Amino acid sequence: MIEIKNIKKSFGEKTILQDISAVMEAGKCNLIIGASGSGKTVLTKCMVGLFKPDEGEIIYDKQNMLSMSDDERKQLRQQIGMLFQGSALFDSMTVEQNVMFPLDMFSNLSYKDRKKKADEVLDKVALKEAHKKFPAEISGGMKKRVGIARAIVLNPKYLFCDEPNSGLDPQTSLLIDKLIKDITTEYKITTTVITHDMNSVMEIGDHIVYMHQGKKQWEGSNKDIIYSKDKLLNDFIFASDFLQDAKEMRMMQEKGEIEKNDERL
Ligand SMILES: Nc1ncnc2c1ncn2[C@@H]1O[C@H](COP(=O)(O)OP(=O)(O)OP(=O)(O)O)[C@@H](O)[C@H]1O
Question: Where is the ABC transporter domain (predicted)?
Fold first, then answer.
């Protein structure tokens, strides 16, 4: 579990994060949602140690990251996997070399074992055939899967994904969501996903933190969201007719008025 307590962050005169407290639940897909500029990325960068908050605590399973020694922080960083926006693969390396990279940097394994581990996670993300390909030779969805494989190759306890669906078609987005969800459950990872994708909110959002203008406006599960009366949250989430319909369907499903496997859902 990651607990954020009373996080404040300003850049110069500009206050970006205002007293944010929230929880990223263990073994769950935690989503940070909110309009552009609401502070999702700054908050996430604070959580992974790329920005230092002005005030507050960031507690990784009872250990406050902000009061750790350099060595402790280094150890924690090795338990954090990151999937960056745009995947951030090395163009000059093959898929397999990209995935082996964290092992080359941070493990003492032999080449044979590093390769074995990389192959294992590439199988996990269904990229058996792409080991020797270069990033330029594979699709956007495949690049995301390589990014995910690289993010989990060191068996992280915590995984951060920055807009994993950006630039993907809806079908591929669903596959990537499902993969993130499966990996989170199988490896019991505490996963945090920044997303604009409302389908993801409904499909994989075990726990959701909604940011509005640098404040945490709302926090709860994807079931709670259906019944939320928070106007800002509702305006944000159900801005489209499609999502309004989805909300009504889910409410009917929850009340048992329609079957869970109703094909309209
Ligand atoms: N390094 C920085 N220096 C100064 N201001 C910054 C810096 N990084 C972010 N900001 C400002 O912080 C605010 C929040 O930005 P942030 O990137 O966290 O928003 P976001 O919710 O992630 O948006 P998006 O969905 O567009 O990525 C913005 O006004 C942005 O300009």
Answer: 2-238
